[in-house]
Amino acid sequence: MAQTSTVIPEALLKHEASLLSDWVAKQGKTGPELHKAAREFLGAFREGAQSGSLDSIDGAAWEHAREVLTDFSIEQSRQGVSAVEVATFILSLKEPLFALLQRLYSQQPEIVAREVWNATRAIDQFALHTTSVALKTREELIARQQSEMLELSTPVVKLWDGVLALPLIGTLDSERTQVVMENLLEEIVRSGAGVAIIDITGVPTVDTLVAQHLLKTVAAARLMGAECIISGIRPQIAATIVHLGVDLGDVTTKATLADAFRIALYRNGLQVTARAARNGGAPEPARG
Amino acid sequence: MAWSETLPLRSSEDVVTVRQRVRMAADREGFRLVDQTKIVTAASEIARNTVIYGGGGSATIEGVEKNGRRGVRITFEDNGPGIADIELAMKDGWTSGAGLGLGLSGAKRLSNEFEIVSAPGKGTRVTLTRWR
User: What ipTM score was computed for the predicted complex, to two decimals?
Assistant: First the structure.
């Protein structure tokens, strides 16, 4: 595209300070970061307009200006500022810039018209640029959080010799479930535990898919010689499971993890009793 | 006050979102925890069917009122292959996939009103309503 002759670099060079203060004044909020970004962008915008074309901000001439906005946009998005607000920052340059052009070329309306159009094209493109950067930053953040959620480890914990527990938390129909259940089975093999407690207190919804995952795990554990107890069955979950028609069959279920633990100890030939009060009971276990 | 919202159902993440929105809707309509859990679970079943068997679709959640009773209605729609034999599909334990075969029948038992409209090649529409 042919390069358009423009008076914008000259206008920017001569009136940068006043334009900057007018622009910053347009912002709803101020701060050193915003002021710095505005100052750097105006400088970069002038450089770009001097050596490049206002038709497109893609070229090398605009690299600095794009960088300044990219950094600003990423920084703002990370702080939770919306893409709209970031774009508004750059769009708000129009009013003071147009006013400046109007003032400088009040006798030559054709120049004002041409330059307003030039500036509009460039500024709109920069606004789109900030929006796309802001959205991309946000998407990256969401993607990272999602993968963190997937990796949110659900550890298999040992409660006692031969007694394992798997406290499940959150949604159980994701890929995570498969991994978590396999971990439990591996740990059963590794430790030779005879009882594993799957606690679903932290699982808000138990539907047929969740029930299926649980039943499969129980069946697999049984094949390896371990019995599973499902604990954390709250009243609303119990009522729902019954209506769903899911048959938990001969799986032992308990309302609380404590109840399940008591059963697990019993099956291992153990029981918890209160210390005898007469002689003050057994000494407190040594601290490790 | 009538309200409604339509959510996309394309992936298992969308199923999670639908569950959360239904829970919020049931909470807003003043459902007790047991009833909340029932309608959320029913919605979860049908939402997953929409994704897995219907090839994706949408869920519309709305607050409804009848004879002074308030409730939540969810309409699931897809343009998937449809269901040839609805009676068979509603049977406990029958599945064309790998599930327990309790999703449709279970969802019906968890709802106060249940409607399914489907034909081969015409997609499927399931409407669930639970009153407070």
Answer: 0.85
